[in-house]
Amino acid sequence: MIADFLLTELVDRALREDLDGGDITSAAAVAPDERAIARAVAHAALVVCGGNVFSRAFYRVDPGLRVEELKEEGSRAQSGDTLWVVEGSARSILMAERTALNFAQRLSGIATLTRRFVDAIPQGSKLRIADTRKTTPGLRVLERYAVRVGGGHNHRDSLGSAVLIKDNHIVAAGGVRAAIERARAHAPHTSRIEVEVESLEQLDEALRAGAEIVMLDNFDSDALQQAVTEARGRALVEVSGGVTLERVKELAELGVDVASVGALTHSAPASDIGLDIERIG
Questions:
Q1: What local confidence, expressed as pLDDT, does residue 95 receive?
Q2: Distances (CA, A) of 7 to 50, 58, 141, 147
Q3: HSE (CB half, 13 Å, CA atoms) of 242?
Q4: What's domain 4-117+268-279's superfamily in CATH?
Q5: Residue 59, Cβ neighbours under 10 Å: how many?
Q6: What is d(CA 150, CA 12) in angstroms, rounded to the nearest whole number?
Q7: Of 144, 161, 127, 156, the residue nearest 254 (C-alpha)
């Protein structure tokens, strides 16, 4: 779930982009007492996500509108399915339409892509599909919510939520062991130490220094198999870089614990959802 105050803040900011100058088209072309019903319709198969943001956009424009959810969050919809219905002032519906759809299309797109990755995991596997911090600035809380709706998991939310030593940290600290030892000395006792490694040599150094999670960055299949064998029982194994749908089965069968996929948020195509408005007097 998303905190109510955060949801309102994000929706209000988006509405201001469209409505700071009002809606001169609707004000000029539509009578103030005109009423309408609008149906949000999927134009392609998708995983439904963002109903709470969709409805909030309409309610923030006009609390007198009524929004009905016809498809639950996380459910699958087919082309032609109606997801949500809005009824009330035609002007108000038109004012909120684009903002509401932008959110719903973006979040449903992320949830849909995530579900495809999750569905590719063989039954009984321990592999988790996780997102990354490669999110749209200001929208991370929504995009990570969409990943969860799609069946995925969230990685660290921010730089302050977990220790993750990456390649530039290793360079700045003077090596893998030095970075791990400094992190262990200064990080909170509740934090596990995760280290990104780019070679089997770095992996060996990280394991000997006591890393609790190792992130294998862009390992080919042979190196990955050897790395998983060496880390088994010593550290959790995360794989990043080049994680495609076609590779999920291989990662699962090798015994990888986590596959982090930046594409879930930075490259998910928006779902095709339209709003069909009908005048009701």
A1: 98
A2: 11, 13, 9, 17
A3: 11
A4: Quinolinate phosphoribosyl transferase, N-terminal domain (3.90.1170.20)
A5: 17
A6: 25
A7: 127
* Both tokens assigned to 112: 């849909």
**Cα–Cα distance measured from residue 58 to residue 64, given in angstroms and rounded to the nearest whole number:** 9
Name which CATH class applies to 119-266. alpha beta
What is the rounded distance in angstroms from the CA atom of residue 143 to the CA atom of residue 108?
10
Q: Which has the closest alpha carbon to 86: 107, 60, 115?
A: 60
pLDDT at residue 281, rounded to an integer: 72
Length of the chain in terms of residues written: 281
Residue whose tokens read 């195509």: 269
Question: Residue 2: its pLDDT value, please?
Answer: 87
Domain boundaries, the chain: 4-117+268-279, 119-266
* Catalytic sites, residue numbers: 98, 134, 166, 196, 217
| pLDDT mean by block of 10 residues, the chain; 281 residues | 91 96 96 97 98 98 98 98 98 98 98 98 97 96 98 95 96 96 93 96 97 96 96 97 95 97 97 96 72
What is the C-alpha separation between 274 and 98, in angstroms, rounded? 10
Other Cβ atoms closer than 10 A to 124: 6
pLDDT value for 173: 96
Tokens of 183: 């992190």
Q: Give the pair of three-digit tokens for residue 273.
A: 């959802």
- Name which of 92, 156, 107, 89 is nearest 269 in CA terms: 107
The alpha carbon dihedral of 235, 237, 238, 239 has a sign of: positive
CB 34 within 8 A of CB 279: yes
